[in-house]
Write a structure and sequence with these properties.
Radius of gyration: 16 Å
CATH superfamily: Formyl transferase, N-terminal domain
Distance between the termini: 17 Å
Number of strands: 7
Strand content: 15-25%
Largest sheet: 7 strands, mixed
Bound molecules: 5-O-phosphono-beta-D-ribofuranosylamine
Helix content: 25-40%
CATH topology: Rossmann fold
Shape: globular
Structural class: alpha/beta
Length: about 190
Amino acid sequence: MRDPKRVGILISGRGSNMRALVEKASGYEIALVASNKSDAAGLKWARARGVETWSLESKGVGKEDYDRLLSKALEERSIGTVALAGFMRILSPWFVEEWRGRIVNIHPSLLPKYRGLDTHARAIEARDALSGCSVHIVTEELDAGEVLGQAEVAIEPGDTPQSLEERVLAAEHELYPRVLSKFANR
Ligand code: GRF
């Protein structure tokens, strides 16, 4: 049985959002942290916290085969919600279908603005007054699914992509656990 309150987090790197989701877990439980990079810094942190981890390098494994193994790992733990947190791999259409409506992601822009990469540089370049972050449902189309929640961050004069990223990241760490808690219980 898939329990929406049991969450599997997918990461590829430092995992600061994953840490926020673990530390601020309320109304949901982190049942697994999974990664396509066995040396992802976030895995070590999760393990030290007693959170179960799973990793499998994607090199040499077919895309859908990989996603079927990942899905099995989630299924075996009765996970019902998948939270992407810096997972740098496009999920196969098979996986998106299998977990339709149950995958969420955090993106560092006020969607529908700036899908894809380099969001902070693009917002500064466009002289936007506001940036921010969005939690959305994952569909086949990149960063295009239903937006579940957003937080705004003002762009200050003299901001660089790095300085803006820092403030948006802090906002992400507040937003994601709050929205995930609502989503897992809706
Ligand atoms: C964050 O900026 C998030 O919005 C984006 O990828 C980055 C992940 O950072 N999807 P972290 O691994 O959570 O620190």
